[in-house]
Design brief:
- The protein has six helices and no strands.
- By secondary structure, it is mainly α.
- The chain has one domain: Tetratricopeptide repeat domain (Serine Threonine Protein Phosphatase 5, Tetratricopeptide repeat, Alpha Horseshoe), CATH 1.25.40.
- Helix 1 packs antiparallel against helix 2, helix 3 runs antiparallel to helix 4 and helix 3 runs parallel beside helix 5.
- The model has no long low-confidence stretch (mean pLDDT about 90).
Length: about 100
């Protein structure tokens, strides 16, 4: 894996997120994750962008992957709680149960 190419995709994805271009951000984060599918930051960033697009179940899935890699990853823990708050009753309760105990 070329770490420089990975870093470029990751940083472009993060910048696009900050600009509110969530779909484009996901495209670049996917490219980064193709190079390193176990990068907790890229997984968490994709979860954030999916949350911003209202894809709550997918967001939780990516955040859970980040937390599988690092169970103490505070940003992913906080984002999962945020997804559950944003989704409200549209998200199956089973996906949000236990988030505060992670």
């Amino acid at each position: 894996m070329n770490k420089n190419v990975f870093a470029i995709f990751l940083h472009i994805g993060s910048a696009l997120d900050r600009l509110g271009n969530y779909t484009q951000a996901i495209s670049y984060l996917d490219k980064a994750l193709t190079l390193d599918p176990n990068d907790k930051f890229a997984l968490e960033e994709k979860g954030v962008n999916l949350d911003n697009l209202g894809n709550y179940t997918q967001a939780i899935s990516y955040l859970d992957k980040a937390l599988t890699i690092d169970p103490n990853y505070k940003f992913a823990l906080a984002e999962e709680a945020s997804v559950c708050a944003h989704a409200g009753p549209s998200l199956p309760a089973s996906l949000c149960v236990g988030i505060t105990s992670k």
